[in-house]
Amino acid sequence: MITLHYFYPGCSMASHIALEESGLDYQAQPVNLSVEGERAALLKLNPKGTVPTLVVDGKVLTENVAILCHIARLAPEAKLAPEDAWDYAQCLSLLAWCSNTAHIAFRQSFRPVRFSADEAAHDGIRALGRELYWKALQTFDDRLSRTPYMLGDAYSIADGYPMVFYNWGMIGGYPVDELRHLTAFKDRMLARPAVHKVLMREGCKLVA
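Above: the chain sequence. Below: its structure as tokens.
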């Protein structure tokens, strides 16, 4: 039994996409983190109170990078991650950069209070976050100028994160449509039935 607890427009979309692409039987459980009762229920499973939270046969796994890699291992026939050791390490490196750099830049731009309790510092933190996040989006765009997907010619667990970040770019008012290769990638992903299904389920405006 597999259950994914997710929140829109959170980063959990990356794991949600991978689960749908895997072909595994699972349940998708939306969580509204702003509703006290729903957040309290999530905290019982995951004391960090974060999404994605994956429950597999009663065992709890958190953090996108770990969940994405576990999904790939649970569905080897779906070929969601490279088999070669070096290529797999490169996949992990990319996922870690998404989680530790691109994600944090957006958080800095969106919630500067998490970086300083000094309100006078928030405008500067936010401005730097926006600059760093735009550079991260440009990094995706450059990578996708050479390959149709993040790791090459085929979809992998590394492709959900850029969809999250493109969506956040739209929400944050970034000129993401200027990023030609990343925008083409977004359209390519939306043409995949699994991706379209997940974004429709989450209520993402990219498919509205």
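Residues 28 and 201 are 9 Å apart (CA to CA).
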